[in-house]
From TrEMBL, chains A, B:
GO terms for molecular function: transaminase activity. The keyword GTP-binding does not apply. Belongs to the class-III pyridoxal-phosphate-dependent aminotransferase family. It comes from Ancylobacter koreensis. Its cofactor is pyridoxal 5'-phosphate. Keywords: Aminotransferase, Pyridoxal phosphate, Transferase. It comes from the Bacteria. CDD domains: OAT_like. Pfam families: Aminotran_3. This is Aspartate aminotransferase family protein.
Length: 437, 437
């Protein structure tokens, strides 16, 4: 697993050293090295200096426009006028913490909670998906009385101490501790036609193994579109058997919606609903404020109460008027711009074109839902991360931003702002053909 | 400790149940209960619905202005025009993650790092103080090879799983795990005239006790003005002996500057510098973006490298162009408005007036530095949290916002925006006299 993950990190990353970049970019790279040191990771063999962004495009210092098929945070489009206006209005008026009352927090919370099935009626606002998943683990452990968490093999759920433990893809050396158990991603290539049963059995075995080691089971945490594992979305409903196993074992099911949430699958707001399950805890983040830091956790009131009996929880910046105003504008823009339907429509078109490309390129699978797609590359020698890396840098040279994922780093990860059009999708596939050719 | 902390939480908090608030506030309280459930904590017996804020004042739905002596986040003043303008400009132009290059990150990082002593030359940007302290603990544990952390008895350092362990004040039930050891706050009432030696001895004993239990020492983590412990700032330099003990034992010293940092002490940018020490890691947060979520960690490059060899660390929203633009505007406003000198000047005036009040009220100590002051209340029966609670609600009725801290919840915590004037300070003390009278 270690060497695989190194591959994933290396796939998108600027390798350092001499690079054929213009002097302005070289100067920034040097400033970056001095101030940010080893913590700095840049994208691309030739990193980009960005100046502005709008809709589905970023504009770089080389004078070119870059079509964005990488960034899911600016989900309603870079610098969406509605979100920009909401932030501009609120930041000059009131920006305080949530121990005072202010209206916009409630306007937002109610609109957000209305998108969830009834039992999930309480929300905790945080600043980042990492904070949401960290809190979800605290709740699950408190409520279950257990410690053991099951995650997928190449999962990424965030960056705190505790969330890193459940993010195998963050380990360059070492491995998660015994209280974290890994199962394979729900890959049809592994489990065959009955992914549901295969994945449920893997979860059941992982629970049995941890309990045999004296570790009580607390819950299953998965990204409901398994993005860092390589994007596994189908068939819809396959998660239900695993969730039944979790509940039978006394654990909680935590749905991490940081990646698939807010309409990206084109089939409603949340990835879990495609699977016909109701999670005990749902976490969300990235696209929630279109770039303004806001994230959250939704759960049943009694779970939250059980936790709050033992601990105070307060988050200074979370749910501020500006954060809520930005997030409310995102929900409104999703509706007004009809972006969930657009994700479905453009996703279908893109999938069809990618499947046609599959016959003429070393593509072993085209997967996903809506505007979260994975294109897996392989040859007779097995997974082909070098093709993914070549595409990432080749598409950058042709003015398109994209990334990769998966256990072997051989899956092109497609998750653009939801405002992209079928013409943009054509531009992507045309460019892929040119690079692959 | 449990019952003490319950007192602190209860001191500021809305107790729930019937409250003499206007209908608009009552309606919001009910909406809040429904959406946020047990996670919701409001201030005051009669919570406030805020509409707007400017400078040192918040304006509530009751038509009144409230002078702010509570909030340190809007440190250069609520809705400071310079910060508002920076956010408004940047949010419409570019707001992306830090794996692309953009200029403002470097303009900010360099200006920030210039305020630190030379060995501390790398910065990691995060979104919250909690994320900064969580990462600091990961670094300290990785670099030291130990697990054991020493903190003060009523410390608060944030809200992640791992940071809650080192925040004894967050526990309503239970206590920190064995790898976290507590020492008393550096209170002259406990340690006498030689606080430095007393506190250093307490740290030394805590390290010895954990090592006797087979737990290897990793580091000492303190808020350098000990705010949640009740505000202990003097004499300057008292921390040095404890830091020497930490280094002799092979541990790291983590200075949590979330509370005292960014000029609040009136004696330079950072609380640690008053003590003549150079920390191994410095964490910061709250005032950094004047309300825009940004936080950070500053350390030596070799410590960061050691950590990054084993783990990838990436934080999606951290160090975005908007976050850096807001934070850069804060540094500029601190200079242009001469706020560190103002903190010193107003702090001196306020301290003198509080000390005069001390002769005529049940005040057992007036402590602090600059615009972080603590006023401790006690009677012949001991600590008097009921006086602090009476003042908090009494000052709210007189249009002044304030809070409390300390092991017994009997310390009025004074930490206003740094733009308050001596006239505002007079207004506070006059109102305190009226409430106490």
């Amino acid at each position: 697993m270690k060497s695989q993950e190194l591959q994933i990190l290396a796939l998108n990353a600027f390798p350092g050293g001499p690079s054929a970049v213009p002097p302005d970019v070289a100067a920034l790279i040097e400033r970056r090295r001095r101030s940010f040191g080893a913590g700095s990771v840049l994208f691309y063999d030739e990193p980009l200096r960005m100046l502005r962004a709008e809709g589905a495009h970023l504009y770089a210092s080389d004078g070119r426009a870059y079509l964005d098929f990488y960034n899911n945070v600016p989900t309603v489009g870079h610098c969406h006028p509605k979100v920009v206006e909401a932030v501009r209005r609120q930041v000059g008026e009131l920006n305080i913490h949530s121990r005072y009352l202010f209206d916009v927090a409630h306007d937002y919370a109610e609109k957000l909670l209305a998108t969830f099935p009834a039992p999930l009626s309480n929300v905790v606002l945080t600043c980042t998906g990492s904070e949401s998943n960290d809190l979800a683990l605290r709740l699950a452990r408190k409520v279950s009385g257990g410690e053991g968490i099951v995650v997928t093999q190449t999962a990424y759920h965030g960056n705190t101490s505790t969330v890193t433990e459940v993010s195998p893809s963050s380990y360059k050396n070492g491995a998660p501790p015994p209280r974290v158990r890994m199962v394979p991603a729900p890959d049809p290539a592994l489990f065959g036609n009955d992914v549901a049963q295969g994945f449920a059995d893997a979860v059941k075995d992982a629970i049995a193994a941890m309990e045999a080691d004296g570790i009580r089971f607390a819950g299953l945490l998965v990204d409901t579109i398994f993005s860092s594992d390589g994007v596994y979305a189908n068939p819809p409903g396959f998660l239900k058997a695993a969730v039944d196993v979790v509940h039978a074992a006394g654990g909680l099911f935590i749905a991490d919606e940081v990646q698939p949430g807010f309409g990206r699958t084109g089939e409603g707001m949340w990835g879990f609903s495609r699977h016909g399950v109701v999670p005990d805890i749902v976490t969300m983040g990235k696209p929630m404020g279109n770039g303004y830091p806001i994230a959250g956790l939704v759960t049943r009131p009694e779970l939250l109460s059980a936790f709050c009996n033992d601990f105070g929880y307060f988050n200074t910046f979370a749910g501020s008027p500006v954060a809520c105003a930005a997030a409310l504008a995102v929900l409104e823009a999703l509706e007004e711009d009809d972006l969930i339907a657009n994700a479905a429509r453009v996703g279908r078109h893109l999938t069809a074109r990618l499947k046609r490309l599959q016959g003429r390129a070393p593509i072993t699978a085209v997967r996903g839902a809506g505007l979260y797609l994975g294109v897996e590359f392989g040859t007779q020698d097995g997974p082909a991360p070098q093709i993914a890396r070549g595409l990432i840098n080749g598409l950058r040279q042709r003015g398109i931003l994209i990334g990769a994922a998966g256990r072997f780093g051989n899956v092109l990860k497609i998750r653009p702002p939801l405002c992209v059009t079928t013409a943009h999708a054509d531009e992507l596939v045309d460019a892929m053909e040119a690079v692959l050719g």
